[in-house]
Amino acid sequence: MVQTYEMGRMESVWGKDCTKCRPKRWLENGEYRTESSFKFPVFHVGPRMCLGRDMAYIQMMSIVASLMEMFEIDVVDKDKCPENLLPLTLKMKGGLPMKVRARVRDTTNATTSGG
Question: Has UniProt tagged this entry with the keyword Metal-binding (predicted)?
């Protein structure tokens, strides 16, 4: 079994702050920067790559887009990095507290089609 949790915290790959929650590490001059899939092999790479990878990405993006369209979501403590638990699948200790509110839709310009 490949230990992706450990690989994602290798100082030789990610630098001195490899254990810190620093989302800006994925940005370069304010733009998203992709990393080599060999550095972060969640779905593995090469000829034995996960066949469901693209489908998983499509599902993740669809679900996130739907949630963002329907709800306003705010993380309660944005400056606190959640503590991780290490079962077979990675979990956050205590979850990720959020405030979720339904978005108010502007229906003044909505049109309906009737039959």
Answer: yes
